[in-house]
Amino acid sequence: MIFDVSKRNFGYKDSLFNNRPVYLATSRIGTFRREDGGIGPVDCGAISQRKRKSVLKAFSESIERRALVIGARGDAIEGLAESFDIMNSKVAKIPRRFTQLCKEDSIVCDTTGTAAHFNSKLAQSNAIKELLEKNSTFLFWYGRQGKKIDLSQHYSIYVSLFQAEGYQVQAYVEETFKPLKVVFVFAKNANHITPFTFMTGVGSSISLSNAIHKGLSEAYLLKNVYDDYFYRYQLEGLEPSSYTAIVLKAQTDSECLKHLELFNKLDTYQEVDEDITLSEAEVETDLIVKNLPVWVKELHTTVLYQTVNKNLIIIKAYSPNLYNHVALKTYIDLDRDVNRYTVNLTQDTLNHIPTCPIL
Asked: What is the pTM of this model?
């Protein structure tokens, strides 16, 4: 593979022999050491049918993750940061550690609910959707809430690319936070050259077609990422407790494969004609927020501090009623409102479900 910038720090992937109509970009810039001694995530990637957009998305993600180590500005003594509570339309204060990468007993905050953009409205909208995505992931995987999508009605270059490599592609939609549609994509290939026989992707939007496109593109990006991880970490080793190690292990877990088959029993989603454009869907934060379930009492957004590119706005969304982390069993608090008011899983039920492989 060729990178247009050396040492894999920044650039897009290309091939001399089999150029695809999509561009995969990578970005790795310096970050900070966390208070607990750990280092924030540095490997970032993106995919797009446009070269420039792919590189910009990957680089923006690097800055976003770097900013999560620092968090929002706040009072050093009180340990609080200012936020805007969208549900109650007022300025509020939340513990500053909720705006940072954090693993402390019952408090887990990761990259969930974070987004970067040059447009503040889009950054806020994407951060909120990203937070809701992770909670839909919990409801979909552990509660089996959702419906099957007939992908034959939706053309995508990514479906064609998957099928050319021997994959079968399935998609599902979860609508707890309607009108937001969260789409989950599973691409399976029992004969893949690495042990990772299935890939996952998630996308969300008010527009179903847009959500499907995002989910498919993420699944195809992660296919390439996981293949790279497989060969790289055979040489470098991997911290067993890291997100990457947990997810890669889940990708080869036979129980996960069995659990995947259960989603085939879901009903088929009945689609309706959409009368909303993609540009409108990206900025309809108000429509999403005003239709949130009544048990979502607070939804805070904060601006994360960063100086790498001051034109880039990084927003972190947080809610005490929702999960603010990926849906790994280790971190799930069953007393959280998103569980109690929906699927209401018990610890015994959760113990019998394999950990979610969807990041």
From this structure: 0.90
